[in-house]
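User: For a reading group we're discussing how well predicted structures match intuition. Take Branched-chain-amino-acid aminotransferase. Before you show the prediction, I'll give you the sequence so everyone sees exactly what went in.
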Amino acid sequence: MALLRCIPQSSTYLPKIRGFRMHGTKAAASVVEEHISRAEREDEEYADVDWDNLGFSLVRTDYMFATKSSSDGNFDQGYLSRYGNIELNPAAGILNYGQGLIEGLKAYRGEDGRVLLFRPDLNAMRMKMGAERMCMHSPSVQHFIEGVKQTVLANRRWVPPPGKGSLYLRPLLFGSGASLGVAAAPEYTFLVFGSPVQNYFKEGTAALNLYVEEVVPRAYLGGTGGVKAISNYGPVLEAMRRAKSRGFSDVLYLDAETGKNIEEVSASNIFLVKGNTIVTPATNGTILGGITRKSVIEIALDLGYKVEERSVAVEELKDAREVFCTGTATGVASVGSITFQNTRTEYKVGDALVTQQLRSILVGIQTGSIQDTKDWVLEIA
Ligand code: COI
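Assistant: Thanks. Here is the predicted 3D structure of Branched-chain-amino-acid aminotransferase, as structure tokens, for the group to look at:
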């Protein structure tokens, strides 16, 4: 598969720059080298971005990382290339049979200038688990982290200043080999790109208003709801569009089997706070094992809260004092109301609440202002 537009792949020139390799012509590579060393020279050069008005839309950065598997399932070392379009065989597994997984993680710039990744090993392991479910080759945990690191380092000027957001990394794994019949693709591509982001929802940091969807489920037992398959997202767009057209922020889905239990929001997990107890749907195969979800649970337990991972009946929404959503893109987002069958239940929002306490500890660890005693943070620059 020819991935490169700006840097031809044919060349064997492989300069080693700041610990990573690049494919490309000598000329193209020296442009890259010049660019990076210039950024280094000027201490910290930032890209030309309106950092105060970042949302969650794609901002085109400089480089992306890619590697392909061969028939034995091993991936080549990989290389950085200019961010741009990719070329695919029309019979590629991703296009015909949906063999694809996404991941999401963030690089933060701390007040001290360090650039930090949050628990990238968990993203790597989740991608491996998803790849097994989807019969795909996957890169090793080390290779995954290496690809992410290279992407961040090459796009360092796109990591927002402290407090202005993060560089969202989107690792993709997809069947790039051709197959006409329904079969696992013979070749896979692992690709990482990034975009600077701030708040996921247009509401910014204001509380979300969710709508409980009763017709379209997000996942079903035996399906792929528990892994980050690309095919988990397209089917819920219609429910999201309906909810958003009625002024809601997002959709809360019910389980496909009984329609009685809450599952998750389109791109985030959900938590209910009831006194000293925090409740969230258990990861039974239909719920995505979110990394923010897992981290928030660990922080809550450390703080002495009781955490229950179990089936959560939709009726329980009435009994919660606070509700919040978690996700890499979402962060820890307060929910102000949930509407179910024309009844709107409102929740406490604001400072001095459990949601805020959990959010500030998590963000503190992610950005390096709270000491990382759990070895969650990987310093890459
Ligand atoms: C993330 O939180 O990183 C996600 O993958 C959600 C995304 C689909 C926007």
